[in-house]
Amino acid sequence: MINNFYKNKKVLVTGATGFKGAWLCYWLVMLGAKVYGIGYNPNKNKNLFYSLKLNKKIKLKLFDIRNKKKLESFVKTSKPTIVFHLAAQPLILESYKKPYLTYTVNTLGTLNILETVKNNNIIKSLVCITSDKCYESNNSTKGFKESDKLGGEDPYSGSKASAEIIINTYKKSFFDKKIMKCGIASARAGNVIGGGDWSPNRLIPDTINSIIKNKIIHIRNPNYNRPWQHVLEPLYGYLILGEKLFKNPNRYSEAWNFGSEKDTVTNVLSIVKKIVNVWGHGKIKVKKNQKYYEQTNLQLNIEKSKKILKWKPKLSISQSVKITTE
């Protein structure tokens, strides 16, 4: 579907030096797109960006997404027709330590993107990446639908719910016309795993680091369920969505979930055990010092994306963990 669409298209990716952003840029380059990236220093995952040699394959500018003038200037000179907005403070624990930064990056950054796109006639497609954490916690095992109530009990989740509200109000106020010039959608993905993610206080990087250093793997919440998926799964969804918005903005300018199949949601302990099994050794210990709130049971309903976008996960959780560990 997407093989020929992105060839020679000018595409802007914010958060290009991040984990998901780097893999998205790499995929777009493979598809023949002319990629422009916005990154930020310091970034724990910039090693992935440079190991993929993306510094030689895309045009990168390093600045804070909250700087509206620099954003507008870069968009004006690069002239993209498609924008993927991934720039964010993406960590729950970090959001407790730096709530103001989390809120401003995740809301003001999104607002700057929307305002820039609103005043631009060239951009035809905008995919804003938020999070599965944007929903109000209800501990349901059915999985959140896109129409469920937004909320969040931690600063990160609250900031992503706020971003969703901003996206929706801008869409309805400035883009929701009979003939839309630009399609705008939000994408809500589950917990992604994959090679090159070295962010601190994340399960996979912490586990791998512990194994490499021959240290005990400490886990906080062994029984917490998450919709784990390989990073390429939601990225494929974003790419499909980017094309759909470009071709039919009226039809696809909505919120979309990208997660795992309903019978594959796996708890933290099971994931770590799978990593240890693939690696060949490793000791696990539960560290009971939970200081902050984290949702116990988080699942997404992905039926809408499967039915309308014709997207679905291709890798099992075991395959995803194996590829990531390798």
Question: In words, what does this structure look like?
Answer:
48% of the residues are buried. This protein has helices at 19-30, 46-51, 68-78, 92-97, 99-118, 155-175, 203-212, 232-247, 249-252, 268-279, 303-309, 317-325; strands at 10-14, 34-39, 59-62, 82-85, 125-129, 183-189, 192-193, 217-219, 225-226, 229-230, 255-258, 266-267, 284-286. Helices cover 41% and strands 15% of the residues. It has 12 helices and 13 strands. It is α/β, with parallel strands linked by helices. A 7-stranded parallel sheet has the order 3-2-1-4-5-6-11, sandwiched between helices. Strand 1, helix 1 (19-30) and strand 2 (34-39) form a beta-alpha-beta unit.
In a few lines, what is going on in this structure?
The protein is of the alpha/beta class and 326 residues long.
Largest sheet: 7 strands, parallel
State the helix count. 12
Extended strand count? 13
Element string (H = helix, E = strand): EHEHEHEHHEHEEHEEEHHEEHEHH
Question: What is the strand content?
Answer: 15-25%
Shape: globular
Ends distance:
29 Å
**Fraction of residues in helix:** 40-55%
What structural category arises from helix and sheet content? alpha/beta
Overall average pLDDT: 92
Side-by-side strand order of the widest sheet: 3-2-1-4-5-6-11
Uncertain spans, ≥5 residues at pLDDT below 50?
none
Alpha-carbon Rg, integer: 19 Å
